[in-house]
Amino acid sequence: MTRRPARPVFTPAVDQATAGYTMPLEVLARAAGRAGLRTLEVPAFSVDAYLHLHGGAGLGALLAHTGVRIGQLSCGSGVPADLTVAAVQWTDAVAAWRRACRTALLAGCSRLSVFVPRGAQDLTLVAGRLSELAAVAGSMSPDLVVSVEIHSAVLLAQAARLVELVPAARLLVDVAALALVGLDPVAHVLALPAGSVGWVHLADLPGRPAPGERPERLLPGLGGLPLPAVLEGLRERGYRGPVAVEVPVPDADTGRVAAAGCCFSTGPLAGFFDLAE
Questions:
Q1: Which one of 158, 161, 179, 181 is most buried, counting C-beta atoms within 10 A?
Q2: What is the average pLDDT value for the chain, to the nearest integer?
Q3: What is the pLDDT of residue 220?
């Protein structure tokens, strides 16, 4: 039986995908604030769109009014986020990454995520490109940190080695993605080096999927994954940061944000999260 911490450990957060990528940032921020979710993970393009219309002062006013902050920018797939894009695209990817870093700084955000797709197998390629992006971020601000989200079974098995090769980077732990490639999420988390986790995506599945099966993701606590044990494992490995509900839906739906907030305050995950942040 998983032992809940004596005091809350993690910060509750929500990924914009849970509310639909088409949801405007101002709508997401208001819905998250009402749900008690003070930390957002949003795509860089969403913040760029808001800055284009309202500027940095307008963004600051929105975040202050709704009581939320942007904890991480996700850069999507392709350019600049996919670390396995064709070599001919890489120069454009680095330029786009530099723009994303500037957006993060304007938004008062210290983390950006990049992506490794399911088919990737070349650790040397991924480590080299991740190191280059981490160096770009570090040159723009010592506070910027790159989190790498890996969906490749081959490279997830080498996640500890990747952060050894690129010590400036951190791992984005996607709990459902681990189960979908056949890994035990609890064992995986416990095997990671202390301090190597930079962000967490939380979603549930109906149960442990069979090989090749890709069931629909569920809100945390509504499925069969051992999420409390995963959170306890993260705590043991020293992680104390945001945990973001990420259950993508195609259309904008503020009700999903409210439901995500309930995941942290009721059911098997209650007690792990600081809801008074």
A1: 179
A2: 92
A3: 95
Q: Regarding beta strands 11-15 and 69-74, do their DSSP bridges make them parallel or antiparallel, or are they unpaired?
A: unpaired
Note the maximum CA span of the chain. Answer: 52
SS (H, E, C) the chain: CCCCCCCCCEEEEEEHHHHCCCCCHHHHHHHHHHCCCCEEEEEHHHHHHHHHHHHHHHHHHHHHHHCCEEEEEECCCCCCCECCCCHHHHHHHHHHHHHHHHHHHHCCCCEEEEEECCCCCCHHHHHHHHHHHHHHHHHHCCCCEEEEEECCHHHHCCHHHHHHHCCCCEEEEEHHHHHHCCCCHHHHHHHCCCCCEEEEEECECCCCCCCCCCCCCECCCCCCCCHHHHHHHHHHCCCCCEEEECCCCCCCCHHHHHHHHHHHHCHHHCCCECCCC
Q: Among residues 140, 143, 237, 248, which one has the least CA distance to residue 193?
A: 237
Q: Dump pLDDT digits (tens) for 119-163.
A: 999 999 999 999 999 999 999 999 999 999 999 999 999 999 999
Q: Which of 77, 198, 83, 75 is nearest to 147 (CA)?
A: 198
